[in-house]
Amino acid sequence: MDEATSSAAGDKRHASDPIAYINGKLHKLPLGRAEITLLAYLRELGLTGTKLGCGEGGCGACTVMVSSWEDGQLWHCSINACLAPLYSVEGMHVVTVEGIGNTRAGLHPVQERLARAHGSQCGFCTPGFVMSMYALLRSRPQPPSEQDIEENLAGNLCRCTGYRPILDAFKGAPCLANRSARGNADGAGGGAACVSGDGCKAGGCPPRGGNMVCPSTGLPCGCGAGTAPCTRPGPGGAGEADGEGEAVVVSSSADKLAMGGSAAYTRPSAEPIFPAALRGRTPPPLCLPGPAATWHRPTTLAALLALKRAHPELRIVGGNTEVGIEVKFKAARYRHLAAPSHIPELNRMEVTDTALVVGAAVTLSRLQTRLRELVAAGAPHETGVFAALLEQLRYFAGVQIRNVATIGGNIVTGSPISDINPLYMAAGSTFTIAAEGAPDRKVAAADFFLAYRRVALELHEVLSAVSIPFTRRHEYVREFKQAHRRDDDIAIVNAGMRARMRRTLAGDWKADEVALAFGGVAPITVMAPQAAAALVGRPWVEETLRAAVAALARDIVIAPDAPGGMVEYRRSLAASFLFRFFVDVALRLEAEEPSFKLPLPPSFASAAARFERPPARGLQYYARAGQDAVVGAPHRHLAADIQDAVVGAPHRHLAADIQVTGEAMYTDDMPHVAGLLHAALVKSARPHARILSLDTSLAQQVPRVVGFFGAGDVPGSNMIGPVLHDEELFATRQVTCVGQMLGVVVAESEAAARDGAALVAVTYADLPAIMSIDDAVAAGSFYEGQGHTIECGNVDDAWAGCAHVIDGTARVGGQEHFYLEPNCSLVVPGEAGEVTVISSTQGPAKNQNMVAHVLGLPAHKVFCKIKRLGGGFGGKETRSVPISCAAAVPAWHLRRPVRLALDRDEDMQTTGHRHAFMATYKVGFTAEGKVLALQLDMYSNAGNSLDLSTSIMDRALVHCDCAYKITNVRVVGHVCRTNQASNTAFRGFGGPQAMIVAEMWVDQIARTLGRPPEAVRELNFYREGDSTHFGQVLEGCQVQRCWDLALRSAGGLAQRRAAAAAFNAGSRFRKRGLAAVPTKFGISFTTKFLNQAGALVHIYTDGTVLLTHGGVEMGQGLHTKVAQVAAAALGLPLDAVYIAETATDKVPNASPTAASASSDMYGAAVADACRQLNERLEPFRARLPGTAFKEIVSAAYLERVDLSAHGFYATPNITGFGGAKPFNYFCYGAALSEVELDTLTGDWHLLRTDLAMDVGDSLNPAIDIGQVEGGFVQGMGWCCLEELVWGDAAHPWVAPGTLHTRGPGTYKIPTVNDIPLDLRVTLLRDAPCAKTPLVHSSKAVGEPPLFLGASVFFALKEAVYAARAEASLPGWFRMDAPATPERLRMACADELTAPFASSAASCKGSF
C-alpha cells in the first residue's frame, strides 16, 4: 500500500508511538488528542513555567523553543505553545524555560542576566521573554544585533516593566551567545569564540574594532569599560549629573549586571542537547485518530491530495493561527486536520529566470531568510518585490507566529486584511493549484480572492506554490500598512503598489504599467483599476496625481456601517498610501535618472520617508545609598559598596531568580489536588434583558460534566459587592451586561466544563441598553448620591475678574488592565466547614469575607491566600471576588476542590476596566494665563454595578487641579449607570482621568493666548504652603524641582523646541512635537479606615526571619521593600529574611494592596514588629556584644523570650475624603517627551522622554525606577494606543453590548518597539519624606508616574498643530484620548482627508 492510500484510509501503522523530546527526555505523546495544544500538554506534565496568557498567540507568555533535524541541519525556533497542536511537534525537541536552568542546578546566562538587570517584575511574562531570547541565540550562527533583539521580542508583551530593563538585559547578547555556544553540544554551530579572555564577564565583550562597552551609556567607547571613571557623556550630553548639577549614580545597560548582584545560584547550567535519536530519523507519515479529530501528517504531496479527495472538509494546519482561533473562540469543530510541514514539494524554494517559486508550506520566517539572501545578492531593480515583501513581513505578527505560519495558509484564508496578499496582486504573482488526478492549474493572484474568506479553490484542491516575479529596470514596488500598533498587529488598511516607468520621446516620464491593491477596504483584497488607469500613460506630475486620487475615491467605497468602522480614516489612508507611492516613485526615479525632478515641493519628499528606528537606550540617575553621591566610580567597586547597604540599594526583586526559571508559582500553577473539578462560566449574551428561560439539559449530558450551579444553589446570599451589595453573583430574572454570570458548569476537565457551558440555552427578552456616558446622561441613568461636589472660593463671582473665559468638553477612554495572568481561583473545602481560597487577588480579605457571605459561613471558616500575582493594576482588587465566589458554590455542594480560570477574552469582557470619563469645563484666566476660576462637571462610566466607582470619582475630584493652584473651584462628579460590565479600580484610580482633563484646558488656554503650554503650566504651579481646592496644605511640594529637573535633563525646552521647529520646516508630512507635563498624586486611601496594616514577624533560632504581612506581591516589589525594612531594622543581610505568602489566617482584615500605599503601611507595620523584637533582644545584645545574631537569638530563646511579634500601623493625621487632609503626602513628578508623527497615517515614534520623579529617599532605586518606567509606558498606552470598542451606537458592526477588543489580537498595549528610543529617568535626590520615618523617608511610586505618559499625548498634539498650521488650520482644536492613529491622521486635515471627512475644515494649497 502506498502512502497516499494508507493515509487516506487511516492506516493504523501510522498511529503508533508518536514521540517528542521535552527538555531532553523522551515522551510518547498520548493518542487520540489531536485537539489539544502543546501548552496544555506541557502544563499537564507540570511544566508550568510556560504560561497561558491569551490562548491566541498574541502575548508570548507561552513561548518555547522547538528544534528539528531537517536536510542535515539542526533548526531552532521559538513558537507559541498555546497555538501549536500537540502533534505538530512530533519528532522534535521541545525546550521550555525549565529545561535551560533552575535555581538548584544553575541559571542559564539568559536567565541570570534578566534577573540581575531588574527585567522581571510580576514575572508572569518573564519565561516567555527568556525563551524568545534563548531561541534567538540558538538559531543564529552569529550574535544578533540590537535591532535583531528588539524585533525578536515584538511578539512578547509585558505590562509591568516598560521593557527597557528587558532590553538592557539582552544587550549583552554577544556574551550570551558565546556562553550559550560553549554548552551547546548540538553540533549546530552557535556563535563565534569570545574575544575577551575573561569569559565575557559583566562588563561585556569588546565589539568589533576593539572598543569596550561604556558602563555609563551602554555604548561602545574607549573609556576602559569599568577600569576607570568614564568621562564620556551620555547620549545627548547629559553626562553623569542628574540635571541639578549634582553627582549621582548613573545606571545604564552595563551597570545592571554590576549593581544587581550575583545570582544566588551559581552552579553552571548545561544546554539541552538535541537528542541523538532524532538525528537522521525519517519522520513517518502520521494518521492519529481521536474522538474530537484525526491528525494527519502526509509526507508527499500525492498523499495530501488523496486526503483532500477523501475528506474534502479537511483543514490544512500550518501555524494554526486560523484554525486554532476558530476552534478556541468560535466553537468550530474539524474532524480532520493535516500538517503540510513534512511534504518536500510544499517546502521548496526555487529561483527561475523570472521568479522565485515558493512552496505553500514554507514558513514566513524561512521566506524572510531567502528573500534577504536574494536582495543582498541581486540588483536592486530586480528585487523590488522581494524588498517590499521583506519590509511587510517585518511587521507581520511576532517571530513566534512567523516561525510556523505558512505563506499558503496566509493566502487561502482569504483574509481581507492580509498584509502580503496586496503585494502578490500588485506584483503579478501567480498561484499554482494542485488536485488529485488533475494537472496543476495557475491562477493570477488578482483573480484568486472571490468573496469574504472565499478563494478560487475547490474543496479537493490544494494551493501548492506561489510564483513571485522579479522586477525590471524602472519598475518600482512599495508596500504599505497602517495598524493600531506598529508591531504584531493586524492592519487597518494595507496596500501593495507597482509602477513601471518609461521615458517618452518627448523626454518626460510616464507609467506603462500600474497595479494598486488594497486590503482592509472591502470584504476581499481589491485592485483599484480606475486609479491605476488615471496614472498609466500620463506624465508623472501633480495633475496626474490629483486625477488618480480622485479616481481612487471611486474605487474605494466603504459603507458607513462596514465592519471595522473608521470609514473616513480608511478611505483617507488609501488616498495617503497612493500619494506616498507617487512621491516614492518620483524620488527613486530622480535618484536613477537625474533628468527627472520631483514634481512637488522639496518638503514633500518626507511623504515617502521611512522611519528607521534605532535601538532603544536608557539612562537612570539616582542617589547612592547611604553615602554622598559619586561620579564615575569603577563599577565593580561601586557594586560592592552598594551591596553593603540594605535600604536604599538597588537590590533586585526577591523572586527574580525563580521568575526567570519558571519556578515562581501563580494560582493556576498550583499542582492539581485529588478530586479537582473545573468550572466554566455561563454568561449573558445580552447587555440588558429579562431572562425568560435557562435550560441546562444538554449541558448535563456532556460526558464528565458533574452539574450546573446557579442562583438557586447559593447557600448564603446571592447579593455581593465591595461597598454596596448591589450586584448578583448569578443573575436571576434580569441581566444587565454581556458577560454577566448566570451560573457555572462543573466537570472533571476544563474542556468538558466549557463544552457544557456552551450548551446551556438561554432565552431573553431584550430591554433598552445604555452603553455610553452620552446614553446615560440622555436617560438620566446615574447612581444617585454617589457623585460628590467640592467647592472653594466663589466661582460665580470670579468670572467677572477674568480677562478670558473658555469652555469645552473633554473625553478620555477606558483602559483594559491586561495583567498577563488572567483571573483564577481555586476553592478547596476542608473539615468542619472550612474553605480555603487560593485566588489571584489584590484583596484576600475581600475574598474571604465575600466567600463567607455567599456560603453563609462565619469569616473564621474561610481562609484566603495568595503567593503572587501576574500583575493586577487594581483590576484584581474587587473583580476577582466574584470568580472566587462562583467557584465556592459548587465546591461547597460537592465537597470537592473547584478551579475556575478565565480565558483572556472572558476576563476582558467580564471584569471591568478603567472608567471612561467625559468632562465639561469652564475656565477663567488672566491675560498672562493665571487660572482664576474653574467650573468642572465630570462623568464616569461606572458600568452595571457601583463597585468602587464612588471612591474613584472622589479621587478624580481631588485631582482635577493636576499640579495647579486655582483659587475658585466648583467640581461636581456624576457616576453613570450603564450596561457595561462593572468598571473598577485601575492604577491611578480616577486621578489620571481628572488630570488629563486639566491638561486639556491648559492647552486651550495656551492656544487662546498664543503662549507655550509649558509657560502656562509653570505659571500656575503650586508652591510650598499652598492650599488645594479641598483644603489640604502642601508640605514638601516638589513640583517645581521635578519640572526643572526634567527640562534640564532634556537639554532645555527652548533648544529642543527650536530643533523640532527646524525639522518641521523641512518636512511637510513628518512632524515633531514636544510637551512637558507635571503630576501631583495624593497618597492614602480616600476611605479613611482602609489606611491600616498588619504584619507578623518570626525569628527562628538559626537567626533567619519569616515575615508575613497583609500586602500582595504583584510585581511592584512590595515584598522586596518590606524585607529590606525588616533586614535593616534587625541588622541582617537581606537574604536572611523570607516572605512566603499572603494569607488571611496570618494577618487578618488587611486592606487591599492598592492606592500605592502598601510599602508605606506594611513597611511601617513590619518596622513596628521589628521594634518590639529589638526591644526584647536588646538585653542579650548588651550582654553579648559582638556576638552573631544567631547566638543572640538562641540566648533569648533559651530564656523563653517571645521571638514572634505582630506589628500594626495606622496612617496618622488623615481625614479621608471630605476632610481637609485626605492624604498623608503627595508625590510629584514631571516628564518631557518628543515624538515624530507621520501625518499621512497617524503612525508615530517616541524619540525621547526625560522623567523626574519624587520618591523621597528611595528604599530601592531599581524597583522605583522600574515602577516609574512601567507606569509611564502604561500611561502612554492609555493616552495614545489602547482603545476599548463596544457594540454601541458608534460601532453598529459589533454585537450589542459586546466588547470587541477582548484579546491581544484587537486590544493593543505597547510593545517593546513603542517605548522611547531614549528614556532617561531621574529620581529626585535630597527630598526625604517627613511623613514616612518608619520606611526610611521613602515615598510611594506605583501610581504617581502613570500620568506622565500624557506627555506623549500632548507631544503628539503639538505635532498635529504643526501639520495643521501648514494646512492653514491654526488655533486650538479638541482631541480626545486616546490619540489613536485614526484621530491623529484625521486631525491632520488636508486635501487627502477632505473628500471623506465632512467635518474637517477645508484647507488651501497643495496637499
From TrEMBL:
SMART domains: Ald_Xan_dh_C, CO_deh_flav_C. The active site is at residue 1343. [2Fe-2S] cluster 2 binds at residues 122, 125, 158, 160. InterPro entries: 2Fe-2S-bd, 2Fe-2S-bd_dom_sf, 2Fe-2S_ferredoxin-like_sf, 2Fe-2S_ferredoxin-type, 2Fe2S_fd_BS, Ald_Oxase/Xan_DH_a/b, Ald_Oxase/Xan_DH_a/b_sf, Ald_Oxase/xanthine_DH-like. It catalyses: xanthine + NAD(+) + H2O = urate + NADH + H(+); hypoxanthine + NAD(+) + H2O = xanthine + NADH + H(+). FAD binds at residues 316-323, 396, 419, 463, 481. Binds 2 [2Fe-2S] clusters. Binds 1 Mo-molybdopterin (Mo-MPT) cofactor per subunit. PANTHER family: XANTHINE DEHYDROGENASE (PTHR45444). This is xanthine dehydrogenase. It comes from Elliptochloris bilobata.
